[in-house]
Amino acid sequence: MKTASTVIVVFLILIAAASWSMAEEKPAPTQAEMVTLKIRVLEANFGEIPRELASPLIMTATGREVRFQSGGKVKSKFDDETHDIGTRVVAKIDALGENKYRLKFEASLGNATLPEQEPETECFVQQKLTARIIVESGKMKRLPVSSHCWYEVTVGDPKLMHLDRGNGLDPQPTTEPSTSGR
Q: According to the lineage, what is the superkingdom (predicted)?
């Protein structure tokens, strides 16, 4: 009889230990989700049709930093100094659940202009935007940077994001420039 009760007690202790051990385990980290990040940079003066300055479309996984660069460096015609031109994006997208994402990104556009009338002049312009936003999957978010320039940002399912001018999920037209402050 003692043997049977000892076996039962040991069995109950093992079950309790296993239950306690399982309760302390941390939940498995959420698996990375594939998403597409679309950033459009547009400009237009009041009443003009918007002109697209850049439109990178980047496929990435949530929880990881992604870098995109189109362009490079240009050397000054007067000295050895170099300047960034083109489009550069550094971004990280975190899934929040319920089709929402936290997007942290830095985008910069660089351009060189050489005025023909003034051969002794060169100009390098760089625009930089750093943003932290919450976006809903497939919904474009407009980020104005001036009265005539803005960014349109969309994060969504790569199977539904199209390579055309739309995002494939929300048939919103390109937004017009801001009329505030006039």
A: Bacteria
Please tell me the pTM assigned to this model: 0.69
Q: Give SS3 for 9.
A: helix
1 three-class SS: coil
3-state SS class at 65: strand
The first and second tokens of residue 64, run together, are 């990881």
> In which element (H, E) is residue 164 found?
none
- Residue bearing tokens 């051969």: 119
d(CA 35, CA 138) in angstroms, rounded, equals 10
Widest CA span in the chain:
108
The region that residue 178 occupies, defined by phi over 0 for left and psi between -120 and 50 for alpha, beta otherwise, is: beta
pLDDT truncated to tens, each residue of the chain (182 aa)? 556 666 565 555 656 555 554 444 444 456 889 999 999 999 998 889 999 999 999 999 999 999 999 988 888 888 999 988 899 999 999 999 999 999 999 999 988 887 778 888 888 888 999 999 999 999 999 999 999 999 999 999 887 765 444 444 444 455 555 554 43
Residue 138 gets which letter from DSSP?
T
